[in-house]
Design a protein that fits this description.
The chain is mainly α. The chain is 74% helix and 0% strand.
């Protein structure tokens, strides 16, 4: 089990940094100083290794989001803190990750879609419902629909269905602008007062 965890840890880091398609089993073996044969004792092929690596990444990501939600009770600040986490996580991530998964590893891609449709959607839905109950979000919005729109917009940034392929700095700019768009759309005047306390919402980003 320890060797399997080492392989998964090394593979996940390489996939995230270099992209899935460009990383071969030889690269993973070299990263941790083992033979490729040893990897095949634990994973039958690259597709299986990618699947378990993405599953590990999703689990770590969800745990981090849950910690943020537990540490911060205010819905507006929750969204801002999660945005900071996503930006930080994305700095070392290859921009073509989702494209690679969708084209070459559909089972792993479906795992991410499941994460979006369940965990991400439910987290946003709960945030919106709490925000409306506390008076920070508008009561006239439809929480289920807005949650789905939010998830669609965020995942479109990764999938490049709305934006051209770019570097991580461009992603950060587009992502923060999307969060800003969402918060200005759903907050009440009470919520917008809290937004004044989030510095990056009022800082012009020169990246285009």
């Amino acid at each position: 089990m320890e060797m399997q965890e080492r392989i998964l840890g090394a593979a996940t880091k390489l996939f995230m940094r270099l992209g899935v398609r460009s990383v071969a089993m030889d690269d993973v073996a070299k990263e941790i100083g083992i033979s490729k044969k040893t990897i095949y004792k634990h994973f039958k092929d690259k597709d299986e290794l990618v699947y378990h690596s993405i599953t590990l990444h999703i689990s770590a990501m969800e745990n981090s989001v849950l910690q943020i939600l537990e540490a911060e009770s205010n819905p507006v600040f929750q969204i801002a803190n999660i945005a900071d986490f996503v930006v930080s996580m994305n700095k070392g991530m290859h921009p073509a990750i989702l494209f690679d998964l969708q084209k070459y590893h559909p089972r792993s891609y479906e795992n991410l879609v499941l994460h979006r449709n369940k965990f991400a959607y439910q987290s946003v839905l709960q945030n919106i419902q709490n925000g409306a109950a506390m008076g920070y979000y508008r009561e006239d919005i439809k929480p289920e629909l807005v949650s789905r729109i939010y998830c669609f917009l965020i995942f479109s940034l990764y999938e490049n269905t709305l934006f051209e392929q770019g570097n991580n700095a461009q992603f950060e700019n587009n992502y923060r602008e999307t969060i800003k768009y969402h918060l200005y759309a759903v907050t009440t005047s009470k919520g917008k007062l809290l937004m004044e306390k989030i510095a990056w919402l009022h800082t012009e980003n020169e990246t285009t």
